[in-house]
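Re: Re: ligand-bound prediction request (bumping)

Still looking for help on this. To restate: I need the protein modeled with DTB bound, output as structure tokens. Inputs repeated here so nobody has to scroll up.
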Amino acid sequence: MSEVPVARHDWRREEVQALFALPFNDLLFRAQAVHRAYFDANEVQLSTLLSIKTGACPEDCAYCPQSVRYDTGLKAEPLMPLQEVRRAAAEAKANGATRFCMGAAWRSPKDRDLEQVEAMVRAVKALGLETCVTLGMLKQHQAQRLAEAGLDYYNHNIDTSPEFYGEIITTRSFEDRLETLAHVRDAGMKVCCGGIVGMGESAGDRAEMLRALANLPQHPESVPINELVQVPGTPLQGTEAIDPFDFVRTVAVARIMMPRSHVRLSAGRTQMSDELQALCFLAGANSIFYGERLLTTANPQNEKDRRLFARLGIRPQGQVEAAAHGCGHDHEHERTCAAQAAERAAAPSA
Ligand code: SAM
Ligand code: DTB
Ligand code: SF4
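Reply:
Sorry for the wait, this slipped through. Here it is.
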């Protein structure tokens, strides 16, 4: 079969529904073929998350443990000091991550907060990591400022289909989200934008969510597909879980519709078996959140992910092979070198 994976922006509803309706094996075969046209199928990108400002968010996102409206027992934390952020980023780099993503529980950042986030971006970049932040809605001048600070990616999810959106969030609209995404693009940054499944949406909603992403003027470079992490106290606690095969289908259709994007198997991995994650990689997922925490909830232990990768023959993206960089040492040595470099970079400086 010769799949020609062109990046289209004119997907029709029926076409996407037809992809979802394919027999599972046919869908995975197509997704894998598209995947191989643009990517090394055995390579997965690693991003590490850090919550730089936790809880007390005024928004009402029904899935979110950080909304002030729900009693989830979460302790609110103010904006983290720069030095702590630098230390966490250095550790992420030493563990093999290539991107560091900082999340703040804001509706939108205040200009004075932005100044501190800009300093974080500069510090993380100085360690040799790619940077991503997710701070809520942005105004054009704020996107511009982040771009000037050297920010690589801005994460802002559409979360679900335009039709289902109102069931999940009432305090800001789908259009507000698109506006922020446009500001990010206009400022010249890369976009990380995806959504959540397992919130009680229909298969049609999942199709429409992906259609909204793929029909953006430019595909997001990074597309996180989150499975809802149910947190007691949030309105979505107790929602019926999604059929795991439907989760894989969502990944596969995202891969086919956005052939050049990294599709991230995001939140929800602690509740997935190794076999289910392997199916997601087969369906074209080629990025994960790596590190024992997401923002406020758990993520698999590094060691568990390392073992999974070893069992599947998957290589973390950007890992320097000892032979390739010519030092003649083994892999473990390479990791130690990176760890030491990261520690040096993270040492308190003037
Ligand atoms: N406040 C900012 C915002 O909403 O854009 C940034 C942080 S927010 C926590 C980032 C994203 O995390 C959300 O858009 C949502 O897609 C995801 N998320 C939050 N809680 C989640 C949960 N319980 N399960 C899965 N994904 C979740
Ligand atoms: C994304 O799509 N998922 C991440 C990141 N972007 C910011 C966040 C997941 C959060 C899961 C719930 C928590 O840990 O608070
Ligand atoms: Fe606030 Fe973001 Fe959570 Fe919504 S998802 S409540 S905006 S932190």
